[in-house]
Structures
1.
Amino acid sequence: MTALERRLAVLEAKDAVRDCLTRYMDLCDVPGPLESADEIGLLFTADATWEGVGPEYAGKFGIARGRAEVVALVSQYLPPAEHFVRNAHLLGSEQIRVEGDDTRGRWIMQQLSLHTDGTAELLCARLEIDFEIERLPHPTARMSRFRTQRMFATPLPTEAMAHLH
């Protein structure tokens, strides 16, 4: 592989990672485009892990092992489950590293949520994710290890959100 081909492979891997994580966040938004939990499963490897870390998330989420457990865990928070009325995810502080076959990323996720119990919150979490890249026929990323750690959370006033219920 030439230097130019290696550079192109790195850029394509980074784009595939962004596409994968952006799709995941989109599917986790409420209301959102999610039609089937299988759509979430397609974004993870068969042996993926999804883990809550740190004092706030280790006990709340624990660790899901394998695609089926990951989908079951995430689905607890998405329609038809009654958890969120509205939920939006924003990503920033992106760092993606591609070194040979190892592809890892870190982001800060901001989440704005209106819950079915009438409460609302803003939270920030650090995401650390490992990906597997399928290079042919076109680069596609799947998450193999997903870790989330809460960094900040605060309640939001709900008076102006009554029309969203």
2.
Amino acid sequence: MIANRPSHLLADPTYSIRPALPYRVDWSPVPAFVRRSIFELGGIQPITKSMVTAAGGTLHDTPSEGEVALFREANIEFQMIFIVASLVAKAGEGEGFGTTPFALSLLPASKRGEIQTAPIDLVEKLTLAYDPANPPLYARFDPFEGSYGLFGINTPGLAGGKGHLDELGLVIGQFWLATSFDHDEVLQPDIGLPPGDAWRRYAKNRQKLLFTPFKKLEPRRIWGADSPIELFLLQELARRGHHPQLQMLIMENGGTYPSFYNLWGDLDFRYSHAAVTEADLYFPEQRIAVFCDGGRFHSGGKKKKDEAISEKLRGFGITPVRIDGRTIVNDLAGAANRVEAALAGSDAQ
């Protein structure tokens, strides 16, 4: 359960009420490459050169005869994986309650507490049908702790009623994950980075997150807010109509690239491949980077490092805004005001 919610948010009576279905998910605040990576997850994953050859060059969600023969001969088992979105409210036009993701996670299908696997002959027969008007839901879904509660479809009490929208896990898609494959055969998408070590480290991290078979029955966060502190600021900004992008890498050339979860923890990528920093929240049009852990509570050495990074960002034309976590919890309105002041200053230029 997400704890230590700011009193400023709890004072709004609508904050602790889960809206009823249907939910309208607006993907526009999610970086394009992350969207593409998620939307491409269907059928059997990961896509390999051997699969393309066996299918005659064209792949579908239902495996072809050639793919079935390929996997049957190799005796490959598959895990059914749910793609779960954690949501914040987002006003807009259209049917249903408006939302946008603040985190994306993967979770394997299970039965009586055990991860389920299936052979290719069963995968061939099953259709991964998905009804957006009546999607599967997880109750008490916490992407930060990796915990969740009841799973159901059309289950009374999951959507609507008392509770918080951010603790409802909305299943937005599913795919079959091969439990064994040749990593060198996996086809990689264009990520926007030039060929070289940075591209290889980025691709390796993405492949590890998306395609490592599950051994434990717990959610795997793949993108989004890194902590509840970021979520609280994001929720207050959303109430004011602001929807920044999350977890954005800023490179030595001033370019920005969407980060997947824990990519910044890859020290080889961070220190060897011209990555300056990772912004918690980023407004691409105004070029404003928000950091939710900086400021007065940092040690002297860390503070000097943050100041040097901030100066480098200003040289790129990026405005840094650093807000410590204690301020977000105790004075959320003031924290959001600082972000709005930076946005107003950018718009005035």
3.
Amino acid sequence: MILFLLYIHVYTKHRHSIDFFIRPLSDTVECAELTSRDESTLVARAFVPGHITGVFRIYDDSADPLLRGSTGAGFCVKIGTITTVRVKDHSTLKVSTRYNGTRIDAQVTSTVVRLLAEECGRTIRVDVDHESSLPSGVGFGASGAGALGTAIALGHILDEDLAFSTIASFAHEAEVLNHTGLGDVIAQTKGGTEMRVRAGAPHIGALIGFPYDEDVTVVLAGAPGLQTREVLTDPESRRRINEIGTVLVDRLEQNPSFDTFIECSREFSDAIDLKTPRVRKALGELENNGLVQSSMVMLGDSVFCFCNSTQVEDTRSILSKYWAQPEIFVTGIEERGGRLMT
């Protein structure tokens, strides 16, 4: 049985607000126990699915990062990121981050930690481990997954009374401030398919779902090559995105269906002219073989294709001409959003 949670929102500068938002109640963040507790270290763990955007429009004119974001549509996938957070009291704020075992300079993760520590008035040492099936920099929502997972786990450790939407808003703010995403986090709080109808952080923005076949297979292929930061800060790319994005998001709002999503995603990717040569060739070959529920991933040197179980091998075979086998993923739509693991 799916429960729904209704919020009514009155926005204040300091986030302490009542929210208006409708989404499936898919987690138990506020009542779950810490994964581990001893005298010196607190540990919590969260899972967040990857997210694919097919079409979007940028809203980032506000000076307040919580009001920035995007409208558009996409879906969450079963592959994702498990984030483990370990916290100790410390004389100063210190953050260490590993991604699949490798220490990295993770600005988004560090920003989430700083924002939450400041909100809770704490100086702490935080060790963050992201174990992820999502490659970075290909448009599969890895940055948003890491940010939201960090926020969920750390927020639970620091203050169990923080509302889920407030916790998630720190992840959204970190993404916006670092120019790594605008709409992934709010979508990753929900799961499934989504149309983002009002831009902003999770306690401000709004989204609705649209129906999909729960048995559909998703095949993804992607590699680094198209930088989100560069696209989001390039005036000409922004102009093209917003010009066609406005038209297509309006069309989706009038008919929020799976078929309309595919149609608008394909039209959007054609119009914004950001396809790499292999994305263009791969999508052409997929279409020639009847695999028309496919499009470019926003934003990446990447594609997605919906197919049934009998079409998976043909889809993989086509995509393997353009991407290496480790860059191809067979997955499905993840119906639940980010949540604590217990």
